[in-house]
Write a structure and sequence with these properties.
Length: 388
């Protein structure tokens, strides 16, 4: 595995009292479990398993591997080497969160070959309600009034759409919405695409629903303008982190676009539907997108698949954490230096909802540090960063 980290960049962990990662486990996860239980009529077995998961993950219980009948037992045993038997609180934040969501699927029976709940997304009611909500109608109607140069609006929508992340909404406050870019490489992003028009662009999705809609609209713009000849949309192979997009979510979002009342949205949906059918927009996935590891550790087959893209756009906070190895980097560390391992030119579109950060100008960092301790995690700030 490539080594990215000097000694002064410790892994972000969940054991620090008062830290954001600890609050995720102690405050956000209990709310999530209650919402899952309210959304679907799980039976006593699933309810007991979810209660046990919450107790073990918040009480520092030992980390125990999956049973041998789990389809990914061997893979997770390798991913957790050195952690099994240790308390939850000793695990890295990225790894522990991924493990929590894998065990949530285990508790609900998602992988049980003989169970009635096999393949049932525990987060589907949240995602479906959001996609059907009136806010989506208003956002789609805005496509009818795009300016002559729509690029700034489309990029902004794809960037700030990440605020629709359902896990963030579990604990967000009403005031946590004032936009502020801490780094803005928008011009470099468009320049990178213009230098090699007609190539393959990778778009690694984050959330479904209101975030995936502007992602798809951006993909349509790249294809219709010729900035991309092919867009590969990467989604998760299974439910993950509450609102993360799967193939089913991508298809539901395409259908929502096609049936939108506004002509521009409906036309966009039709173009994307045809693009998917003819292969200029492809839906792709890989087990590594649900792995508890940084992108520096991606397997050779995924690295080979991504290689050759003119640009890979990584959406959202989790992809950013994985890109930078979820460590306490000094925030002024150059973004390019920490992403040199990635196999293609890379762009990150991210609303800040966790501690990891790099590539921020010293004066910007000094200004933001005066605003309070939670500016990195409250979702009020965002960034566009590019390594061409």
């Amino acid at each position: 595995m490539p080594v990215l980290t000097p000694p002064d960049a410790p892994v972000i962990r969940i054991d620090a009292p008062g830290s954001f990662p600890r609050a995720v486990f102690r405050e956000r996860h209990p709310v999530l479990i209650r919402r899952v239980l309210d959304a679907l009529p799980y039976g006593p077995q699933q309810r007991a398993a979810l209660a046990e998961l919450l107790d073990r993950s918040t009480g520092g219980g030992p980390l125990e591997p999956l049973g041998p009948d789990a389809p990914d037992a061997a893979q997770w045993r390798a991913w957790g080497e050195g952690l099994w038997g240790r308390p939850w609180d000793e695990a890295p934040f990225l790894w522990a969160e991924s493990w929590f969501y894998r065990l949530l699927l285990e508790a609900t029976g998602y992988f049980r070959p003989d169970g009635a709940w096999r393949g049932v997304d525990p987060f589907a009611p949240f995602k479906a309600a959001e996609l059907a909500g009136p806010a989506v109608d208003a956002e789609l109607a805005a496509l009818d009034a795009l300016p002559p140069d729509p690029r700034p609006a489309l990029l902004s929508a794809a960037l700030w759409g990440n605020r629709a992340d359902l896990s963030f909404q579990l604990t967000a406050q009403d005031g946590d919405r004032a936009p502020d870019l801490v780094a803005d490489d928008s011009a470099r992003l468009w320049a990178a695409l213009e230098r090699t028009p007609g190539g393959r662009v990778g778009l690694v999705a984050d959330n479904a629903g209101r975030e995936l809609l502007p992602d798809l609209v951006l993909a349509d713009h790249l294809l219709t303008t010729g900035l991309a000849g092919h867009v590969a949309l990467y989604v998760k192979p299974q439910p993950y982190f509450v609102s993360d997009a799967t193939t089913a979510d991508a298809l539901a979002t395409l259908a929502r676009l096609r049936t939108a009342p506004g002509p521009a949205a409906a036309a966009t949906g039709e173009r994307l539907w045809r693009a998917t059918a003819d292969g200029t927009l492809t839906l792709r996935t890989h087990p590594f997108f649900c792995a508890p590891l940084p992108y520096a550790a991606m397997p050779a087959d995924l690295r080979a698949e991504l290689s050759g893209a003119t640009l890979t756009i990584l959406k959202g906070d989790l992809n950013y954490r994985r890109l930078l190895d979820d460590r306490h980097w000094p925030a002024t560390t150059p973004f390019a230096a920490l992403t040199a391992h990635f196999p293609t030119p890379v762009a990150a579109l991210r609303t800040l909802k966790s501690d990891v950060l790099a590539g921020v100008a010293p004066d910007t960092l000094a200004r933001l540090d005066t605003t309070g301790p939670d500016w990195r995690t409250n979702g009020r700030h965002a960034l566009v960063q590019v390594r061409p």
